Please model this.
Amino acid sequence: MNAVQELSTAKAKTVTVLVNEKPVEFNEKKATGAEIKAAAIAQGVVIQPDFSLFAVKGHNKLVQIGDTEEVTLNDHDKFVAVAPDDNS
Model:
């Protein structure tokens, strides 16, 4: 396998989702809510581990994701993390 094939193979395994409109990359197709928040924080999204996490489904319908709840990640999935005292 040459370097281009290796790069495209590695790229194919990466899943990119949006957390608060910022791209976050994962090497796995499944993650818990806590893992999604931790990866987002590590990749520069300005949130905290105690924020509530929501998956954006359809026309801006929000579905809460618990810290221990495992979800399957797909490219372009959208998540919103909000402070626990944010009443929006």
Q: What stands out?
A: The chain is about 25% helix and 35% strand. The two ends are 50 Å apart (CA to CA).
